[in-house]
Amino acid sequence: MVETNAIEVKALVKRFGDFIAVDGVNFQVHTGEVFGWLGPNGAGKTTTIRMLLGLLKPTSGEMRVLGLDPVTQIQELRTQVGYMSQIFTLYNDLTARENIRFYGKVYGLSKGELEAREAEILQMAGLVGRENTLTANLSGGWKQRLALGCAIVHHPRVVFLDEPTAGVDPISRREFWGLIYAMAKKGTTLLVTTHYMDEAELCQRVGFISLGRLVALDSPANLKVNAMRGQVLEISTPEPERTMKVLKEAQAQGKILFNEIAMYGAQIHAVVPDASAYREQIQKILSAEHIEVTHLDWIAPTLEDVFISAVKS
């Protein structure tokens, strides 16, 4: 492998008995890039991360993180990577300061290094003045920022964030992503898993994994142009639930075939092979049921449209 990227993965496979969790995955993550790793639950996202961290041994394939093999060079790797798992890893019965000191000692920081990092992390997490507060008493947003601080206390060059903002309010999520980009600007490489499509839009490139296989990889803008299978018709009506029921019944009866149809807030998105042709068909079906349509037209796909299209194909 050419060691020009922070992360390189080639034909990576992980089997658990007869189950294939990761199936021949190939991708690279550039140095200083914010890379999104998206997929449904059970798609293989966390398994991939655990292999890259050296926590799981792959069945076959190659991988390098900072040019190091996570299987044979795990000790060298651990000093250069950080990991924030989707499972809360802070100790609730320790204060914010005590958690930072604990992780700093785990990573072997000297007393002077740890004192400097403690001050930096408390500032970053917005916990100055709350450093002696028990972690159990911190809000969700503060806990997430503290957990990030503990994951990067040793200045890792690559950071893996596995659903880092799950269950956090929108304002805290936005603040957390500000921290992510502040790290990226300093050259840190970040691989992030998330179920929030607005967060995926913030990544420089995104990989979609489904049933263990990489099904799409590009920038969010390029994915919307090149990875969408079909066109999206947006339908607005005063009766969205009834409209969905009518259209699904029409599909079940073979009157119309959708690639995908789903609710998006108060609107319905129907993914079809040809927007102009299907527009008239949909209008006729809804008119026959006396359903008022206030808007029915082609729209550019959202990243969520592309994601659903990719993982269901």
Characteristic terms for this protein:
2 domains, Rossmann fold, Alpha-Beta Plaits, 313 residues, alpha/beta, 4-stranded antiparallel sheet, 6-stranded mixed sheet
Structure write-up:
With 313 residues, the protein is an alpha/beta fold. The protein has two domains: 7-225, P-loop containing nucleotide triphosphate hydrolases (Rossmann fold, 3-Layer(aba) Sandwich); 228-312, NusG, N-terminal domain (Alpha-Beta Plaits, 2-Layer Sandwich), CATH 3.30.70. Helices cover 36% and strands 26% of the residues. It contains eleven helices and 13 strands. It has helices at 45-52, 74-78, 96-106, 111-124, 140-151, 170-185, 197-200, 220-226, 240-252, 275-288, 303-312; strands at 7-16, 19-29, 34-38, 60-65, 81-84, 158-162, 189-193, 205-210, 213-218, 231-236, 260-264, 267-272, 295-299. The strands form three sheets. Strands 5-6-7-3-8-9 form a six-stranded mixed β-sheet, with helices on both faces. Helix 6 links the parallel strand 6 and strand 7. The protein is globular. The two termini are 31 Å apart. The relative contact order is 0.13.
